[in-house]
Amino acid sequence: MPNQQPLLLQVFSWLTDPANWRGTDGIANRLVEHVGICAASLGIACLLAIPLGLWLGHVNRGQLIVINIANAGRAVPTYALLVLLAIGPLGLGSVSTIVALVLFAIPPILTNTFTGIRDVDPDIVDAAQGMGLSGAQVLRKVELPLGTPLLLTGVRLSAVQVIATATIAALVAGGGLGRIITAGFGTNNIPELLSGALLVAVLAVAVELSFGVLVRRSRARLS
Amino acid sequence: MVLSAESCLVANAWICGEYVQTRQSQIIAAVQQHVLLTVVSLALGIVLSFPLALVARLSPALKGFVLGASTAVYSVPSLALFAILLPVTGITQTTVVIGLVLYSLTILVRAIVDGLESVPDEVVDAASGMGFGRVSLLLRVRMPLALPTFFAGLRVATVSTVALVTIGFVVGYGGLGNLINDGLQTYFRAEVLTATVLCVVLAVLADLVVVGMERVATPWRRRGRA
């Protein structure tokens, strides 16, 4: 029997039905899975990309490599890499998902960290060296604070992208909010499908906005 | 079809010439669909981005609204966007095209606005002094000078669109994404790897086409460099 309620109301009632929040397939669990996968991936990507970007930016080397990594990251479809990993050695599961998410999260962080450090005014770096600061001190006390806004912009780009990509991961193996969308697809349950889409969109926009505040704060601290 | 024991299809090898040979027509059809979806989406994106960018430049409030809306769209995951469009446009190519156009707009509108804003005031003053009206100032001075920034944005949008088409498989129109999904369902390695490599090749080729278009559209830059 077709439901005659307006679609938005159906979505609202699906989202507010406590039954849809409980259990493995419930919203609460899927949300925790999604945030967990994303946080792990973003954390690993930061650990790998930030030190590398800091170092390459400090010695001002490897620009070509950094740019090419960024371009390659854009040209390889996320879904394709996920599937390749899943039917390859890593198998279906969250390891494939996290590896794929890390690989796609690295380029924006690396590029922005690199650019942020490299584009620090050379006069300031000269002055710092003239004051007797060592290379590591220049990086830590001068270049890093000045490059932080751009570094955070990179992390912000990656964070939003990771949340979006983690949705696709549900098509391959993992959990997360994408599972609500795919479940809705599978059973042609439009309110469920839309609820899943809405939840991911809200999460992505929330992360985007919070990082926006962080970036603005780090800029304000400089002026 | 008789398969020998050494067949790479039987071995489920990653690289398999036999796969490419036997599924040639299927692969070509997927590439054609991929190219068509990319070209249509980008063409619509380009056509729509110019008026939107001009509207955004009318007032700071409009600019904030247009750029804010495009950031919001950009942070909506593709799977979610296709899902949101599904009840409206159904399982059609339109669903994929609308989604891809929206994503390309988020990049293109910003690129045009940035490009128009980067035109130096002195240039605009000089042109006004030479008797350029508002329209000819826009068409003959501002737009040409904004083109390099626009093309930089178009390159990003093009490469991203080629990659994003793959997700269209969720509504049955994903070009090479259809093959990747089929390969996942059947654990067919050669199919997934071949489709992935073709995707990357398409992205690189599309990027080269845009670079070529830029050279044709901005001949003064080419001369300057030579």
Short description:
Chain A has 223 residues and is an all-alpha fold. Chain A has nine helices and no strands.
Structure in words:
The complex is a heterodimer of chains A (223) and B (226). With 223 residues, chain A is mostly helical. Chain A is 80% helix and 0% strand. Chain A contains nine helices and no strands. Chain B is built from eleven helices and no strands. In chain B, α3 runs antiparallel to α4. The mean pLDDT of chain B is 89. Chain A binds chain B through residues 7, 71, 74-81, 83-84, 86-88, 160, 163-165, 167-168, 171-172, 178, 181, 184-185, 190, 193-194, 196-198, 200-201, 204-205, 207-208, and chain B through 71-72, 74-81, 83-84, 86-87, 156, 159-160, 162-164, 166-167, 169-170, 177, 180-181, 183-184, 187, 189, 192-193, 195-196, 199-200, 203-204, 207.
Topology:
The complex is a heterodimer of chains A (223) and B (226).
Chain A: H1 7-16, H2 27-59, H3 63-75, H4 78-86, H5 94-118, H6 122-130, H7 135-172, H8 178-186, H9 190-222
Chain B: H1 8-11, H2 17-22, H3 24-56, H4 60-74, H5 78-89, H6 93-117, H7 121-129, H8 134-164, H9 176-186, H10 189-217, H11 219-225
Helix pairs in contact in B: 3-4, 3-6, 3-8, 3-9, 4-6, 5-6, 6-8, 7-8, 8-10, 9-10
Overall mean confidence score, pLDDT of chain B: 89
Query: At the fourth CATH level, what is the homologous superfamily of chain A?
Result: MetI-like
Distance between termini of chain A? Answer: 62 Å
Largest sheet of chain B: none
Report strand % of chain A.
under 5%
C-alpha Rg of chain B, in Å?
Answer: 22 Å
Instruction: Report the largest inter-chain contact.
Output: A-B, 39 and 40 residues
